Input
Amino acid sequence: MKAEDVEKVPAGIRGVNGMLWSDGALYVGVNDYERKIASGLYRISDSNDDDQLDQVELLQEVESHSDHGVHALMPTPDGEAFYLVTGNNTIPPVLADSSPVRQVWGEDHLLPSMPDGRGHNRGVLAPGGIIYRVSPDGQKFEAYASGFRNIFDAAVNRDGELFTYDADMEYDFNTPWYRPTRICHVTSGAEFGWRNGAGKRPPFYADNLPGVLDIGPGSPTGMTFGYGAKFPAKYQNALYALDWSWGKLYAIHLKPEGSSYTATKEEFVTGAPLPITDAIIRPQDGAMYFTIGGRRVQSGLYRVTYVGDESTEPVQAKPTENKARETRHTLEAFHGKQDPQAIEVAWPYLADKDRFIRFAARTAVEHQPTESWAEKALTESDPARQVEALLALARVTGVCPQHRNEQTPEVDTAMRDRLLSAVINLDDAKLDLTQQLTLQRTLQIILNRFGRPDDATVAKLIEKFDPQFPAKSPKLNWLLCETLAWLQSPTVAEKAIALIQSAPTQEEQMQYARSIRMLQAGWTPELHKAYFEWFLKAANYKGGASFDKFIEFVRTDAVDSLSEEQKTELAEILAKKPEKKSALENLGEVFAGRPTTKWTLEELSTAAGKEMKKRDFVNGQKMFAATGCYACHRFGNQGGMTGPDLTSAGRRYSPHDLLDQVINPSKVINEQFSAISVVTEDGKVHTGVVVNLSGDNMTLNTDLTDPNKRVNIDRKTIDELVVSKTSPMPADLFARMTKDEILDLIAYLISAGDAQHPFFQD
Output
């Protein structure tokens, strides 16, 4: 295309983030946070048939306060409406009663939540980012799914299923509530749990849904499926997700599982820097076109074509058959409407093994008149069904304190007492772990929305749940510790301190420390001393930009919970300043004083070939923490984000390969985490990973164990820029470890943290 072929559209519009051509008009999502025009949904059309888009109509204003505002538009699968994608700093317009999302959202923190230490989104409450289903005239807004942080785009697959790519909050790195950028399967009525500060819901909470794939740190932008591309079949079927800050275009390979999907990712296009913004498949030539730009960096248009021997014949465009998905759709048909058949149809599925089906069933129940099913929930004989039913009942009959106002009725204490009686009498011995988590989360919502019951009921709750803490599951411990601390159990202090001292990761330790910060029962001087000694250790833990503030918030609440007498007794430890250590020094103390061994790949690989049975799972987990792996690497839902995610390492590498990666870290370097060396005109040399671009400014992370070790460089002053051939991973990581410790660590990695893996069996 030549420059003279580009014509400016005469329409007076600005701040356009999303565009959709439909019925002879251009619909756009406008997000003008400079407020020169109203943000919202617009239609741009040709007023006089001269083939010029000159007429602008505001169909619906959507108030937006930042770039986390109004974003993409796309048609719904039935072609009768649009999806409008918005971030967490938009204020919903008046929502239709037919919204699939039941509008009973709340913060639902049992303990007071901590706002972001740097003030980001302080005071912004639920529901967070929303995907709306909007009528073409813009007058009917339904909340289709909520609880996102800052989604920018979405895409629909051949099965008619919607997917989006949600943003993380990088300030939260290495905290227990950090959630990486992730691909979400967006189903009817879904809630994805964004809340401000430390209030973000972990994926295991029953009142939200998890993503289908964690990506890592980044800044999500465009999305599209590869349908129509002249690519091999695998890539025609892929979902493409774009990351602006890390310069990645991911191919997401989805696989149906139950009523939802599992997924794997592949780096399809990458560059450093490559501030990628959007992508399309052009059916005329089967090529992918993507753009770069934004924040005053250079813009560009690129084309991706396939060169190779694999067939590029079009994949047959038909939806796949899936009975579980059909069941979910049957349940979703009751969302946003009252139907006499809904309870009878949905109730059996409250105990379904498929999480998305359970969520759809509970949402269907929540949309029905409460009086038609409340008694059924309170008296249900199947514990697995009852925990979901009680969760629904607590949500629709209780009001979150942050959303109470003059119009809100008084707390229904009679309902509270009946809900808590049902919880106390429920036979939780018949529940599996997932159902136990649902029960504990339900109890938290009851206590949060209805308030503290009488002392006799508190005593019964402690009597029921105190013996269950600590549990074998860290997830269950998360909830039990919070609830028992709120109830002021006299035994939780001792148990929580023991967990803090034994937990392998800083995230798990931090969660227990956060949970008991307002606890006043059950303390001894020795337990208090151990608690405040942990804060001295935690002062050396590393995380995102708000990490230190969060630690400070926890400690401040803990000190404020002390009596004056206790403050006097603990004066010495409270006045003590932390001794500064590096992340690796802090995590690797277990090896202090040991001699070093120069392990070779051959001897360890030989040992791995013969001795990978009867490995020690607990010791493998301990070694992963002790060697400092968590400082840089994500594993499961914990760890850093400055190195490759190791959760799926066992699917990609053999024990030999993993040993080779550690012993020879610079042999093969993951491109996403390749460092670059920058020489500036004044002779200074900076080495690190590019984490941000803005205009002429480039930001490097110069220490992968500390996300806040950054340097800003004016790109106009760069004399030389080269990709480093040296891995930032420390050499001789195995030097102070025994052979068994190394093999336990490798077994732990290969197992993806599964204690039932054959490596740990007799």
User: Anything to note?
Assistant: Residues 77 and 160 are 6 Å apart (CA to CA).
